[in-house]
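Checklist before submission:
- one chain only
- standard amino acids only
- sequence pasted in full

Submission:
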Amino acid sequence: MDISTDFYKTVYDNLRLKSKILAFLFFSIVFLQVVALIVIFSTDLKKVYHLPGIIVIGPTFISLAGLAEIYAYRFFKRKLKEGGTISPTFLFLLTAIEVSLPSCIFAFIIILQGNLASVSASQILTSPPFVMYFIMVALSTLLMNAKLSVFSGALAGFEYLLLALYFFKINSIGGLDVPNTIMRAVLLAVFGVIMAFISRKILESVRSSLDSKNKLINELDRMVKEKTTEIHLQKEELAEKNKDITDSINYAKNIQDAILPDMEEIKEVWKDLFIFYQPKDIVSGDFYWFKKINNHQFLIACCDCTGHGVPGAFMSVLCSSKLHEAASVSSEPDELLFHVNNSIKENLGQQRDGRGKDGMEICLIKIDTKTRTVKYAGANRALWIYHHETKELKEIKPTKASIASSTSFDFKYKLHTITLKTGDILYAASDGYADQFGGVADKKYMTKNFKVFLTKKANLPMTDQCDQIKGNINSWMGNHEQVDDLLVIGIRV
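Returned file contents:
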């Protein structure tokens, strides 16, 4: 660093780092210089020469000098902040003006007064306020670099000696003690040199501290940039992988949607029904299944496979396929479940001990629209029947064993046969609706409440019931996360 910039650069760096110590010392010493000169002009000379004008003239000149110094500091700070440099010659000149200007003003005021014959030179040159001024000038070297400290201290001593010789030359002041005055001037100069060494130590300590802080800051900045770059790259990589995975799942959804029966196909056989289907994720573990037997008979099922999302979707594809295979063998619900159970257990290797416990809960219904006869077989999924005449919702209990997972090979499911009346409604649902958390108390919706809700809405058209069922559960859910896939089927006979 150029030595001409050390002083102001040090002050500026400390200001930037919010360390105000050097800046405080700088302005304190400038202030003490001003106070010292005001005391000289307004106290000593007023008492000795009765010069009221000096009280006004002295502080005015010194205030202007102080303002000039402050503005010079601001100028240097701005220039250094913008990356500029300061000429060493210019800074030495500024220091000379700072030290010399007050003493020149003092001499100028003495000339203006003219009548100082009765005043001893020692009274002025040895007065504490006068000497204090030069000491303050020398102390200001603490904030400069070493060369400026020597220059400023020597100049302060020289100015002191110059004033003494000037008084002697104009012969306006008697009793000048030349040896003593020269000794004082030399002492001031030596004091400036001593301050130079102290200044060097202070600046070296400050510079070392600043260098250490700057190195630490630069190292931390480098580490932060490296980490930021690394995190950014990882984020981009994760985003790309997430996109690939999401694209794959979306494509899997297309496959899963393809295996779901078309609603128009279902309504060609029977129009007065609804299917509410709301997966938790892109793909679902719940699915509905349909098989037309003839013009007045069909099979329909509400199925809930183990898990949800991708694992559940895999099971749903397998179970849907096995239902179609079984339907080619039999159209009776209990026999279909028998074949599906054995086939899935065989495919998943569950007939061997220690294999997975994946499976399916199902409510499988066979409806004869001509006779209004319903045959039902269930694996952990009940069938609810709303009787139009009594306005009651009855439950047909399922076999307490899901497909595959917890059953033995060749396990048989119970068949229920029910004859319905016109206006009766069949309801089948997966467990997602009743298990959904929500409401003010953040509790499960519960099967009991769902059955009460269905009873209240049973007289509505089937499409309206579907809308009410959807709106009810989403309102209950609120800001809570959907915990499972949702599937509800309603059929009015």
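Reviewer check: The chain has two domains: 3-214, 260-492.
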